[in-house]
Amino acid sequence: MSFWDNVLLLDIFGGLKMTGRHFFRKADTVEYPEAAREPSDRFRGMFRLDEERCIKCTLCAIECPINIIFIDWHNEKNPQGKNEKVLDRFDVDLKRCMFCGLCEEACPTNPKSIWLRTKTYELGTYERNDALYLDIKKLTKWDENVKPFAVVEQGEGR
Amino acid sequence: MAEDPKDAPAAPAAPAAGDPAAPAAPPKPAPAPAAAAAPAAPKPAAPPKAAAPAPTDAMGEPLVAALAAAVPGSVLGAKKMVGQTTIELAPGKLVEACRHLKDAETFTFLVDLTAIDWKERVPRFDVVYWVHSFDRGNERVRLKVGVADGAACPTVSGVWETANWMEREVFDLFGIAFEGHPDLRRILTWDGFQGHPLRKDFPVEGIDTGAAIYPDRYPEGGGPAPDDKNRKAVS
Amino acid sequence: MDISESVLTWVLIPAVKAVVVVVLVATAAGVLTYIERRTLAFLQVRKGPNRVGPEGILQFVADVVKLLTKEDVVPAKARHVIHFLAPVLVMVPGLAVFAVLPWGPEFTMRIPGLGKLTTAWYATDVNVSLLLLLAITSVGIYGIILGGWASNSKYALLGGLRSAAQLISYEVPMGFAVVSAILMARSLSLVEIVEAQKTHHMWFILPGLVSFFLYFVSGVAETNRIPFDLPEAESELVAGFHTEYSGFRWAIFFLTEYANMITISAVATALFFGGWLRPFPNVAALSFLDLIPGVIWYVLKVSCFLFVYIWFRGTFPRYRFDQLMALGWKTLIPISLVNLVCVALAALGGFRGLRILGAILWVAAIGAFLVVTRMRASKRWPQSAGPAPAGARGAEA
Amino acid sequence: MSDLVGTAGAVPESEETMLGLREMELNFGPQHPSTHGVLRIVLKVDGERIVSARPDVGYLHRGTEKLFETETYPMIIPHTDRLDYVAAATNNHAYVLTVEKLLGLEIPKRAQYIRVVLDEMQRVSSHLLWLATAAIDLGAITPFFYTFREREVILDLFEDYCGARLTLNCMRVGGLQEDLTPGWVDKLRAFTEDLGAKIDEYEDLLTENRIWKLRTIGIGILDTKRCIEWGVTGPPLRAAGLAWDIRRAIPYECYSELDFEIPTGKNADTYDRYLVRIAELRQSRRILLQCCDWLDKNPTGDIRGKVPRVIKPPVGDAYASVESPKGELGFYLVSNGGNRPYRLRVRPPSFINLQALPEMARGHMVSDLVAIIGTIDIVLGEVDR
Questions:
Q1: Complex ipTM, two decimals?
Q2: Does A8 touch chain C (CB under 8 A)?
Q3: Topology at the third CATH level for domain B16-26+50-179
Q4: For residue range D49-108, what is the model confidence (pLDDT) as tens digits?
Q5: Rounded distance, CA C306 to CA C223, Å?
Q6: Which residues in D lie closer than 8 A to residue B164 (C-beta atoms)?
Q7: What are the C-alpha distances in Å from D274 to residues C3, C53, D277?
Q8: In the CATH scheme, what is the code of domain A48-157?
Q9: D238: in domain
Q10: Measuring CA to CA, which residue among A123, A94, A95, A112 is closest to residue A156?
């Protein structure tokens, strides 16, 4: 540092100028509850399940790295007399989910029957057990526990 | 090692990607000249649809031969897979061989050190070292030493200081003691932890560690009470 | 002077003033915390607290309520009595100095039933008020040291020790800077110093440019603010001397820090920026500025200093302890000694001498600034002692 | 407080200190504002001068390597995100590179470029985070907000691309999960072009600031020889003057086609590491612009090579590494021919770099320790795994 730098403190004033310029800039803050950013189309959020499309292959449960998808099914004769798998249970232990999306990738149906691209991320609940196991009802039909965003159908945003 | 056939650019102009067998090339000058990378030789087309990579014998490699000659009895075998040479060393000659590699062959950088548990094999463990030479065109060699369960492996922390924590980690997770290590304590698990998690017989779901969180609720010695339904079975 | 008047002059008015000062200072310190958070937020392209009350103005009330109702945790092995006394020892001097701060000139008002009354915008004018001020502020150090020691925590102890060394060291250049103002005004009374700036036809910032810098830098250090906030350096000592304080005792430390900021700024205003005087106090053409009362001028000037405090906080990293000491002892004290001699010589020449000194200082400073910045306009930064790694700057097109 | 004035120098390690005072043992962490997580350092201090520092790690140990052995190859990728959680893409990359090496897979060119883009974006975001926290450690709070402003844009771009902001899970063995969205490259280019001016802003605040220089120059010196001895890689090694970068030394993906420089320092101190990281930000910007050009020229293409449906690497082992923002991040895979790795070892740069902390900190003051921890740039998720 030269003598003049020590006397005039140019670096000090330079720094002050830098922050001073920002004083007049518009804040970048997004004030969250009032002004929420819309997530991107590929955003991995809350699960959605289409029970009609699901073929109960349990590939999603197999592929889940932390084994949080629980599927039970049994065979039932449908009106045509054919055996058909009927879902007993489709639970996701949401509190452990890390939203990696591997279940969606593993799903063999087209369009997928389980998908995460729902843009819904406000998953907080007041009761621990509300978030623990999301049963079929919650996965297929969101009730007031989960604030629905614009529901994105599988296939969009690809 | 370092050069998988598919990764080796065709043009020798590309810096630091030289043939592993090439004699010592000086390290690149500090600011890598932009020109060196600019020509950007296109990579060769995909290698012929070879069958799955398989190990080949590498006893003939110059480095292996040199090591075997310099430290007699140290090399038990060598093989090459996906362009990476592995030398199997005799435990008794490990430190000597490492010292030779570092001092004479300029492998100054110990990249990593770990172990593999082969469970039924005798000896049970392999301790694996990677060494790197900046002066030999970024050549890398992997060293392997077989260690029996309960036996001690000689420490290389006197050769490369960085081996200190890596050996502690292996000791912690595999239970392989390192003879002559200056500070052989557990590092990732806590002092007093029982068991070595990366051994194949250690249960994935964990064990009852006996850590007392609520001394008034749980019996002496800690952990869930024997009749607690949350208690996990200790395997 | 009859009895009722002397009661009024010596008991009632001081009592009222004391209460008003304490309440105002406590509130001002609270508001200052809010202002600081907002200002910092603006410097950092964010919004800051804006939820409680309109634009968040009641945030400090919410904070105070929260702190009052919080559990007061005392470490098990703390020295309880001293741990309890330390915040008091910090707060009392912090508030006491406000007695001598001259916020405005004397004025006369008419009180129904009592007749005309002459009083002033300050609690009292002691003829050695500067001395009193320096003496009282020094007492606050004891609270910090004792608080750090009594907490029985190593971090608090380190913070207290740092604080002791720092405050004592920076008292010295601060004292010298104050002395130079005293020399210029030939009085120890703050009120007289302010009035002297009117009789000298200039603010003392003109001849006292260097003194002011010294005073302000030492003041920042005295109030433990960035870049000198070592006693409570968050990233090093967790919270320094008040690590083990919580609830309202912590709030007392906190509020006193802000009260001290106000004190330092107010004294700087009185010493160097003409106190309650308007700019160019003797230029008749600007007399319309007299419509704004002196108190407002004073508050405006103090606010500017407080803004600079916050601006500093938003800009600078923190010194290391030994560097701070080196700065104090090796840089500020020698400069302040030389400065003191210069000012004393100039003061010998009366107010003519002071004017010459001021002219030399300002011309030299502005000239050097212009020349050096012009010279460096081409280079963004001078090539400094630091190494320039390949491609550190301007490597890409 | 035996030595109030003076600069930091070496203090002989002796029991007897000045004035015959006892050394104080100071427990730094695991709950401390500037240990960047749950790092604990047991310090012996003489006054404020550090006589010895003993890092104690493992508070965040999750047994990731054990977990790897129970999962199939695709299922491991989300777990790698959580090693160095501020640079998830490079973790993914190192892992898939290792599996691909053992499988002998060839990656389509487009996938290589997108991987490089993700890597470099991750490097920029990681370095920005480093700058933010390192500045806060030294008391400068404002750069934090400026750098996070830019980092936010990168995270938004990640979100646009793969749906996650931090733990990306974006790479797959043999390529990528999905292609870029339309217009993504333009957004990236706009951000990248803007980045240069933003880096100037950070430099205005710090590079020439006298306090910043006082706090960083000469602090935590670890020269080239000691760096290699301790296995320190990444910016600390380059700040010591050795231009060694895996991207150049052992090129992977398309790095050999890209034009960039490896910034180096001279003095191997904290200030040089700061300058090297700032210069790396500029170099990453350069790489990103080149990749944008390439992606503009080649708007379509395969993003996934020919990958078997079930990934079963042959019996054997392979090691591959990438230049993560922290240093050399490598994965060592031992396969027994099954669909799960027999052993998967991570070479964590943070863990190995942290080992040099006692040597770097000895003789400095407690305040400098904060700067040194910051300058190593550790992420405890990776240290403890």
A1: 0.79
A2: yes
A3: Beta Polymerase; domain 2 (3.30.460)
A4: 888 888 888 888 888 888 888 888 888 999 898 888 888 899 999 999 999 888 888 888
A5: 12
A6: 355
A7: 73, 42, 5
A8: 3.30.70.3270
A9: yes
A10: A112
